[in-house]
Specification:
Four copies of one chain form a homotetramer. By secondary structure, chain A is an alpha/beta fold. In chain A, strand 14 and strand 15 form a beta hairpin. In chain A, helix 5 packs parallel to helix 13. In chain A, the strands form four sheets. In chain A, strands 2-10-9-8-7-3-4 form a seven-stranded mixed beta sheet, with helices on both faces. The first copy, chain A, has a three-stranded antiparallel beta sheet with strand order 11-16-13. The first copy, chain A, has a two-stranded antiparallel sheet with strand order 5-6. Chain A has three domains: about 40 residues; about 220 residues, Type I PLP-dependent aspartate aminotransferase-like (Major domain) (Aspartate Aminotransferase, domain 2), CATH 3.40.640; about 140 residues, Aspartate Aminotransferase, domain 1. Chain A contains 16 helices and 16 strands. Chains in contact: A-B, A-C, A-D, B-C, B-D, C-D. Chains A and B meet through helix 3, strand 1, helix 4, helix 6 and helix 7 of A and helix 3, strand 1, helix 4, helix 6 and helix 7 of B. Strand 12 of chain C pairs parallel with strand 1 of chain D, so a sheet runs across the interface. Chains A, B, C, D: Belongs to the SepSecS family.
Chain lengths: ~475, ~475, ~475, ~475
């Protein structure tokens, strides 16, 4: 309420109580002021009531909520369903304009503010998480793959002749498809085996650059976060190589914001060489629903170019989710999530190690992968051909989600490209294995339950000798 | 509750009352059954409580809501904020998989069901709205422009040599940019003036096809819904031409679902010639928040190809919105919106005509545009150079949203292409004018208020002779 | 947001858009201002967003929502469940203080404002609905019966010697029990039959007064709204009699606010004689959940005395419900409900008349009852003893709720008092009958469905001759 | 969804995923089954989604949510405002029937179930909290005072001659008023000073019983939870005395459920003597909004008599709140709240002791009061007459809520009864003091902030010597 209404209230209930209420309101306003002034994630998280107050204030500024508005356009922010209006806090106009996803909408000052603030708060978090020199970023309501495609499409205008994208292999479909979708030819560079780890074959990359000619290469497309035993790409070296050859460099940092190691690699890459853009998932790093990504970079002009490449308005829903989340957790809350994740990574590693040795398997030694772990399944494989895939099936049934079982020698063709040893990032990884990851939001209970159920399943499979049930088609997929 | 729980309830409250409650529950279940069985929009809208019951049921089927789930993957549908979880009905996993936006997710049977049903219900509505022979469609969480770009990117794989897209001019940025984003060269075909109307220059299109060579043309990119005095493209003739030359044809049907004329054009085009895909906005046709589109077509295989071109999972938010909306309105409710829109179009036309003649202007004669109307501003222009832009500014201030003022001779360059007479779809339209549209959800009150405020503004401007206030930068833009 | 925050916002998005947003906010504030200033129900209903904005503003003023509050008392408005906090808009402190349900709470300026405003808005509605000279009222979170008891308990302090309450018979348990609960002896005055109508036996009342002695009588307890064929008590005459004998007069106006006739009776009674308090249900008159009532009267001091008789704080939930409802409907919306109800009363009467004659029954002639109607069941009774009760059972099963079937000669004992012909307000009403009412919120569809199902049921019963199924225990009760 | 709908879903998405979803649904059903079967508070709290699922299921069973219902009664559970419907989960019919607040409603099987289960769950919690032999209880939507009045009103019918209620003094208005409201004459028995503690004067009670005659005494009305330095009444002795003289005994256990000591006193009292009913607040013990109470006792028949004394239906809102809360916390969660409260009581005592000695005051020695503490203000009083009341004012302004400042010699008249030394439970307590309590839900931060602000305030007051600002009228009240 404004001061006039507070004054009127003093006539109805005692002035001293109203004044205290009015002062309390200023407490909330003060938090909003700091956000508007600094554009940073607040140190301490806001209460739900402050968050909702703020969102209601934003909504009131959008023309579809004007009490006296009359609309004779083709897009007026009308909403047929009250359920829908409410779940979006009556913020209906989305973000951006036809020319630019980061543009301000005349009809929707509140939604525009939401968009600007979200990008600003997210930028702050990227800095806090380790990429201190990031210059600009924006949230886009597309998942990582499509966002990578948008980066490639933007680069096309800078490098009209280029046809190839150099891509150190990582067996995840959407990042591969992002290149296909954008209309480029992926040049797959196989990884090298170093102990248990699969790491970037830098010499092969260099060879490819020379073979194809730098001017024909749109960019190098590298990856940080990935499933063990693959480890993050050698970003420093790749970035330096890109700088040397004047080739753009786009990093798929899908769920890397949650790991200080991944973020450090990007920061270092940008320092010593060239990184044009790095893309990260909203859901995987910020515990929001699937469907958004952050496109970030060290040159604000290039990032703006990408944002202008998105034709038309876009859904504000992912922006709203991440803003609510970060205002609620605050910077401190988010950091706490990160440190807990790290801690549980160690616990998970230890527990898997113990379990592995109890079952005659071993935890693969992949110290450079800060999130994902892999446990060999050699022994299980020995008991029966089907045992490995059966394990996957059993874990699915027992509600262990996210554990992946990787059998040997799977072959898969995607858009005409054939990958031998698919899912293992390698044509011939020495052993079948099981993956488990410590991702943001994981709890000690998740680990305990997973280990318990995994132990039971392994025991059951061994007891059977040859497992009775037929393998499920799910078994070898990432569930 | 299941039957066991109903039985237990009978011991607590009277069996006959519980039985009636249980029977009432079956009423809701029955509605859900019909939806699952037929995959169609229900005739009569559901109550909010049935809708929420259904969404809760879906959510319960997703692994992030399993009571005994333990997650050790990198994407577990965790949500940090309760506000966020609730506003998505705890449906967190989005839609699609890395390979295909229409694919089923093992971790999320509920979200997968949501996705399939939404596409099915939306297909039903497209049929009901006039495109009876549509074969397949899917909702994509991107606005129209980006969705058009996705169609073009898909076509690239079918026509690797093609570089051009033939595009009868329509002055709307995002559809122009969709071609740029996808990496193609737009070939702009100017419209011809026919009375007051601007319509497709079919001969010029034909000439361009011959000039460039069919194999070098990715597709013809035509438009239905548009601002008067432009009218929908001559889809039948274009479709026939495309069939003849074996050129794909993509139709931008942005807000055309709400008009039986636009839908009829598409249906006829597909019947007599070739339409590969037609794309429509969710927000503009279904009164949901900005950010989604429907990609539809007559060949299910091609539509599937597009859906597979989207790399990675995607936000379920637009799908959820449109599903809630259509279940709530029902087919009958939606049809009622359509007929009301049509009725108010006539009222708006009549009122504008009356107003125009009172001010010495005239309603442009554009009978082929079923949604948008234009009123000349010659007289206003005569009073002062700035008067036309000032009118725009005044309407903005008076909360008339969506009315656009189009001055003469504006020039604008977009991605290196210069458009003379920008916003008027023509290099030299004979007069300045004002647009107003009767779009879905418009009310009689909108029309009355708009006419009243427009009348006042025009009077004020004329009284001034020369308007006192300085023109606002907003004046000539689409607010 | 306050002006400082709007200024900051202008740096982030365009000043002119922010200014329009800020102006739009003033639109909401203006509505709130009028409410605070006038304390009246707004003419036009508020939008949901204004209502929620207002409630959030109130909540912010309560100490449990102060960001810097620390609590070391025994009642701090803490809430363990987020679901609970949200459903009460974080207004936790209830209304009133230990001394007085209308008192202001130092800890809760917002809740106090809510309480004061609700009472004020409700008073306005009572005036609008016909009791123009009502002086004061308050909402109490107890249903009508308990609220009547509170009135009687208050009167006890004024009339310590009085033991009797004179009560023209109405067969509804809770108003009878209200006298028992308060510790008084009800003196039941049977009604007189006048045509089909049962009306107040004024002479019998007068006789009782003289017989018992005015000083021994706590009050006369009369009733307006009731089931036909009983009609509202003769309030004018009773009020005059009370004035003459100096006996307090409490009116049970349970669902009478919705009827201009009932309200007129009260207004007239107070004008010509004495009415100390009249009590009405919230749920039955304002379409809110069960559980609240309004205690109103013409002497503010006496009403305050009652409010001070409620020991302790009380739930704000009924106040919140009725305030939300009236702000949402506005005075005009509420009046529209009233006129629709009246209109549907005529339809229901006509339809029942038609149906009755088709089945050889008749609509009882009860023109003085403005809400409830009764249709004879003589013919049905003739077919079988059980047929009348079976009809009740059938209607229950067919989801006709609220229709009551009244067989002949039911006897019931309540708290030691035996009522012959219970449910019919008379020891020996001439015929069995069925009740149906046109109450606020009823729709034409309710009437149509009810008539259809009633017709079917009557036909079925007659076909059977003797009905096959056994009578349900529900049959003769008010469902 | 029922099994038929799950089967249909299997045709749309993969059967194995749907089956897992269906199995997950059974997880929720299982929790509901246990609740229905055992009627106990679940050990572990339910997730929000299970709670909402359950409430939605209940709502579906109420006739106002029947899809095919038609209503022609005067109370049909219609709701005019969607906001209101939603906040009550569409449970509109309240609880109870006209005859009995615990009765089952034919129109509302779901609400009836809610009512029964709430009473059952609450009974379980009373047992867990220490009153193991409690036989029956019910939730009533009235605060403690009005609930006590209802008990007294019920007893009147058992003891028609009785006029007096014997009441060991406790200076809290609503419990005093409850006797006045019910129409009885409170017989105030002053407490005795024992060290710093004020405790029951058992001999005086005995004397009063003999003086007035047992048959003229309605009951003894004792108290457990209270502000220090008063301590809980000597329940065992009072109960024994009541048994001996055959006098009913009603215990005001306002916020005593949270204290094992208070609950133990009741359990012991009932074991060795007579306790007819004990009444506790919902908000103060269960962290729900103000407005409900639990009436409990050891003789189910008497408790039922009270429930039948409530005339008419009642609000379900307090029942809903406490049920949601207890399902969410679970028994373990509730017990954890209790143990934390106890722990923080020790911390608060220690901190106050330290602070007191630093300021030349002392913590009063009141070991028998398990919740409230008192710190002397002798020194402060010495500096200035007004200093004590000013302290109250300062704490209010500094957002320390719930701390009460008790000056010497306040006199207050309530309903004609004059209390000397009001607020101190004694006509002449030796010193002024300040109260602070460790009530359920208190946090360590509350204590830290309170101590800090109290310290600052005391320092400021002493610095002033004579405080500058004028005393606020709030100062001596319980804020």
């Amino acid at each position: 309420m404004n001061s006039e209404n507070f004054l009127l209230s003093e006539k109805i209930v005692s002035p001293s109580y109203v004044r205290q209420g009015s002062q309390a309101r200023r407490g909330h306003e003060q938090l909003i002021r700091q956000l508007l002034e600094q554009g940073k994630c607040p140190e301490e998280g806001w209460s739900e009531s402050t968050v909702e107050l703020f969102l209601n204030e934003l909504a009131v500024m959008d023309s579809n909520n004007f009490l006296g508005n009359c609309g004779v356009g083709e897009r007026e922010g009308r909403v047929a369903s009250g359920l829908v209006a409410r779940r979006h806090y009556r913020l209906i106009h989305g973000i951006g304009r036809s020319g630019d996803i980061a543009a301000i909408q005349p009809k929707a000052a509140g939604s525009s503010l939401l968009n600007k603030l979200t990008n600003s708060v997210v930028l702050d978090i990227l800095k806090l998480s380790g990429v201190r020199s990031v210059a600009s970023c924006f949230v886009v309501p597309m998942a990582t793959g499509m966002s990578l495609a948008l980066c490639f499409l933007t680069l096309r205008h800078r490098r009209p002749k280029a046809r190839y994208i150099i891509w150190p292999r990582i067996d995840q479909k959407s990042c591969f498809k992002s290149m296909i979708t954008a209309g480029f030819e992926p040049v797959v560079v196989e990884n090298v085996l170093d102990g248990d780890e699969l790491r970037t074959d830098l010499e092969a990359v260099e060879r490819k650059v020379e073979e194809l000619g730098a001017e024909n290469i749109l960019c190098v497309h590298s990856t940080t976060s990935c499933f063990a035993p693959r480890v993050p790409d050698s970003l420093e070296e790749l970035a330096a190589m890109c700088a040397k050859h004047n080739i753009p460099h786009v990093v798929n940092n899908a769920y890397g914001v949650q790991s200080s190691k991944c973020m450090h690699l990007i920061q270092q890459g940008a320092r010593v060489g060239r990184i044009d853009a790095f893309v990260q998932s909203l859901d995987k790093n910020f515990m929001v629903p699937v469907g958004g990504a952050i496109i970030a970079g060290f040159d604000a002009a290039f990032i703006e170019e990408i944002s202008k490449m998105y034709p038309g308005r876009a859904s504000a829903s992912p922006s709203l989710d991440v803003l609510i989340t970060l205002l609620t957790t605050g910077a401190n809350g988010y950091k706490k999530y990160l440190s807990e994740r790290k801690e549980i990574y160690s616990i998970l590693a230890e527990e898997l190690k113990r379990l592995a040795s109890a079952h005659g398997e071993r935890l693969l030694h992949t110290p450079h992968n800060p999130i994902s772990l892999a446990m060999s399944l050699d022994g299980l494989q020995a008991t029966s051909d089907k045992a490995v895939t059966q394990l996957g099936s059993m874990l699915f049934t027992r509600q262990v989600s996210g554990a992946r079982v990787i059998p040997l020698g799977k072959e898969q063709t995607i858009n005409g490209y054939t990958f031998r040893g698919f899912m293992s990032h390698s044509e011939s990884y020495p052993c079948p294995y099981l993956n488990a990851a410590s991702a943001i939001g994981i709890t000690r209970e998740d680990v305990a339950l997973c280990i318990k159920r995994l132990d039971k399943s392994l025991k059951a499979l061994k007891k059977e000798g040859k497992a009775a049930r037929s393998p499920s088609p799910l078994a070898s997929q990432n569930l």
